[in-house]
Design a protein that fits this description.
Length: 198
């Protein structure tokens, strides 16, 4: 129904504030394919991107089961989805679409200023994703900005301190995937001069 309404609505006549609200609404309701279409029609300046594209990313950071670990569904999933009109592999297609949406939003933000000027916003995304255990979002974010693993938030500490505080085992398991750096991460201290081992 939403796809039909989107196809008959004149989106190009809408202003950017309305499109951003529509983008947020489609993300909230897991309509990622429509979110992609809206994002592709958005024509924002660099300042507008920095102002408006953080809210869709925050919404995606708070959806732990919404993002898949693949940016494309497998051939088998696509075939089943097209043959049976989304009855079998719809979740896999939605998760892949959400993965692509996160990539697209980060790419849009990357076109603006450099990482150091927006580090506070990225730290907020890391904290939001770590609180709810959104590992896939964190992996996408850390692949784009590897420095984020070392970023330290005054209130929460590193993303692993947040994971421990909110008991998110899946996020904490990322330490094992990191490899050599895990010893250095365990020695970082958060509030109250406590390491992760306390």
């Amino acid at each position: 129904m939403v796809s039909y309404l989107y196809s008959v609505t004149s989106i190009k006549d809408m202003d950017s504030a309305d499109l951003i609200q529509l983008l947020n609404a489609t993300i909230s309701t897991d309509l990622y394919d429509t979110s992609h279409k809206i994002l592709n029609t958005l024509k924002l300046t660099t300042e507008e991107k920095e102002l408006h594209l953080w809210s869709p990313l925050k919404l995606l950071a708070r959806k732990p089961s919404g993002i898949g670990n693949k940016s494309q569904p497998s051939v088998w999933e696509r075939c089943l989805n097209s043959c049976f009109r989304g009855r079998f592999c719809n979740k896999a297609v939605m998760q892949a679409s959400a993965h692509q949406l996160v990539d697209s939003l980060l790419k849009e933000l990357r076109q603006g200023k450099n990482f150091s000027t927006l580090v506070c916003q990225y730290k907020l995304l890391v904290v939001e994703a770590a609180k709810v255990g959104n590992v896939e979002f964190l992996i996408i974010l850390i692949r784009s900005y590897p420095h984020l693993i070392w970023e330290f938030d005054e209130e929460y500490g590193t993303l692993f301190h947040v994971a421990i505080k909110h008991r998110q085992e899946r996020v904490f398991n990322l330490i094992y995937e990191i490899g050599v750096l895990k010893d250095n991460l365990a020695s970082l201290y958060a509030e109250g001069n406590k390491s992760m081992l306390h």
